[in-house]
Amino acid sequence: VAAELRKVGDPDRVERLVLTGSAGLWEAQSNGQLPKATRAFIREQAERVFHDARHVDDAMIEKLYESLKDRVYVRTLLRLARDTQAYTLENQLGELAVPTLLLWGENDRITPPDIARTFHAAIPGSQLVLIPECGHAPPLEQPARFTAELRRFMCGGE
Question: If you write DSSP's letter for every residue of 30-83 in order, what string do you get?
């Protein structure tokens, strides 16, 4: 993990970095197993991702339900969850030497804004933008605002 972070922090490899709802500092603890993937459970979890639950529809739930029938996909999810709980990047964030934008949903319940503030305090010169009325998926929930902030940052707007 540290080696990968150094690659990201290397101005010769990365010009700018954008983090949105990112893992690496704090993750909700689990027992390493997924509960039975009923459509009701999937809907409940999907609704936590958004500030406005109207973004969750039956087609989304069905697609997620079908995905969770794939054993390889489920094993990958479990491995990812385990790895994000096993490592913290807090002590390495100060090594980032590239302009960094933290673009976060103000109502994120998965990685709350306090996590964004911790990233911001640890990454030298970073910018923090909290998008109002937005949960964990800013590109989906507030696409116009997300895109405007992303363009501003990527075009050199500080």
Answer: --S-PPP--HHHHHHHHHHH-SSGGG--HHHHHHHHHHTT-HHHHHHHHHHHHH
Q: Do 56 and 43 meet the contact criterion of CB atoms below 8 Å apart?
A: yes
**DSSP string covering 82-151, please?**
HHHHH---TTTGGG--S-EEEEEETT-SSS-HHHHHHHHHHSTT-EEEEESS--S-HHHHSHHHHHHHHH
- β-bridge pairing 100-105 and 17-19: parallel
Question: Which of 40, 152, 48 lies closest to 101 in space, CA to CA?
Answer: 152
Phi, psi (rounded to 5 degrees) for 34: -90, 140
Tens of pLDDT, residue by residue over 11-63, are 577 889 999 988 766 555 444 555 678 899 999 989 999 999 999 999 999 99
The DSSP secondary structure of 17-43, one letter per residue, reads EEESS--SS------S-PPP--HHHHH
Q: 106 near 132, Cβ under 8 Å? A: yes
pTM (two decimals): 0.78
